[in-house]
Amino acid sequence: MERLRPEDIELVVRGDLAALPKLAQYTHEDLRQAWARSSHPLLTAATVLSVLTALRRGQATAKEAHDWAGFLFSGYTGSVPLPLTRLDIEYDPADEDRIAEVIMRLEQTEDDLDGPITDAELDRMISVVKQGS
User: What's the mean pLDDT when you consider all of the chain?
Assistant: First the structure.
């Protein structure tokens, strides 16, 4: 298998949901090393908005959005042995609260307590993110 490129992680941080499955093929140490060599792009409100919009339009699945948010929230893919060093993926400080709220909710979509996002909730999240953009 080829070495993980920093650009592969950067694509995911920039909202490319199709790039995420590739990351799952690598160990957490591979991810950590690639992130260390990356340009460390910030997660922006515009990126979150593009993912929410893709989800709303049916261009992304709830599972893809969940997995993307889970990676950004936790800094790892799938299940990894603990302890681990999280990837330090930072949110744009200008919109950090809005971004964090949406990422956390997307990450919770597959748990029994919060469940799937309704269209009304998705529209509200889009509106919240747009307020900061």
Answer: 89
Cis preceding-peptide flag for 6 (omega within 30 of 0): no
User: What's the Rg (C-alpha) of the chain?
Assistant: 14
Q: 91 in helix, strand or coil?
A: strand
Token pair, residue 61, equals: 């699945």
- Single-letter amino acid, residue 34: A
| CB burial string 19-38: b at 16+ within 10 A, e below | bbeebeebebebbbebbeeb
How far is it, in rounded angstroms, from Cα 51 to Cα 123?
12
Q: Which residues contact 91 (CB under 8 A, 6 or more apart)?
A: 42, 43, 99, 100, 103
Lowest average pLDDT, out of 3-7, 52-56, 107-111, goes to 107-111
Sign of CA dihedral 73, 75, 79, 83: negative
- Please count the other Cβ atoms lying within 10 Å of the Cβ belonging to residue 113: 5
